[in-house]
């Protein structure tokens, strides 16, 4: 409030009304985005009877961890599915960053025959609907004996993350002045040294953005995991939520479902809170030169 009052006092009278309207509109949109999250967490601590009687109620007088305990008996247990999701998300992030960083650096700072055509082809893969190539992907995984494996799923996720990741890293490296590279070359630094010790620290917001997108997309992805995984012990959290929502005899266990949603949301929220500063800077990298 002190900052709001300071900003209002610092602006001319003609601009104060517009600034106040902007702040109020932003608060309204924030409430719309935050309320579903608050509702999910609040319902996850309801007793089973209260959750079944009135699933739409925001709060309950009673507090219980019963819903989280029931998740342990869903299939192999929520901790098994959470571990699978962590392994898949971590592998996707690491491989995406390892491939997109040198690729983005190459497209940004080097010139070679067919560069523009190759970059356009990479970007064009973003236009291919994932659902249209499920069969070819399954056949490829079968040839390499990677069907029904977490590694195969990681490779699929990395493949679909790379076009956007390469695009982001190229923009991030474009924002770095060439004078830094030329100065490093004069000092005798190799290309690997320039990339590792000069370019990468400056382009760190772009790396954080790529890593966050790769994590969120692989953590929340459902269709590929449902199709390419058949072993219940290798399922991920999104598939667990489907099993919870289907329930026995089609009866939805609302309390356990909200507990599963809360478990799925927590890593995403924490990651965004930790990296939001780099996320915004990474998205705008290369926009102004």
Automatic annotation (TrEMBL):
| A Pfam family this chain is assigned to | BPD_transp_1
- Enumerate the transmembrane spans: 20-42, 78-105, 117-144, 150-173, 194-215, 259-279
Domain ABC transmembrane type-1 as annotated: residue spans: 82-275
| Alphabetical UniProt keywords | Cell inner membrane, Cell membrane, Membrane, Plasmid, Transmembrane, Transmembrane helix, Transport
Q: How does it sit in the membrane?
A: Multi-pass membrane protein
InterPro entries xref list: MetI-like, MetI-like_sf
The record's subcellular locations are:
Cell inner membrane; Cell membrane
Coarse class of the protein's main subcellular location: membrane
Q: What positions belong to coiled-coil segments?
A: none
Subunit comment: The complex is composed of two ATP-binding proteins (UgpC), two transmembrane proteins (UgpA and UgpE) and a solute-binding protein (UgpB).
* Cited function: Part of the ABC transporter complex UgpBAEC involved in sn-glycerol-3-phosphate (G3P) import. Probably responsible for the translocation of the substrate across the membrane.
Q: Which family does it belong to?
A: Belongs to the binding-protein-dependent transport system permease family.
What's the protein name?
sn-glycerol-3-phosphate transport system permease protein UgpE
